[in-house]
Input
Amino acid sequence: MSETAQTLVSDILQELLINSAEQSIPAVDFQAGVRYLNRWMSSQDADGIKLGYTEVTNPTDVITVPAGAINGIIYNVALQLATTYDVIVTPELAVKAQTGLNIM
Output
């Protein structure tokens, strides 16, 4: 199964306990998630982590990175979005984000 912008943003919001798997993502939350996702991936590329990411705009856009990088992306973008939703980052999420970044 290919990851899409929709599945990735949904997983990011679930990490922050903003959205459950059963809920559809409100358009405003999807757009915020995509903005942060694209920005974070651009910063990683600029920092030398070249994963072949192509910017996304639509829910059905395919995420173009190796499967092994997906969890790291989810956890790290969740860290970036936490302040937007006034969510306190748990130590568990911080560790998962760092581990994911190390894998990338």
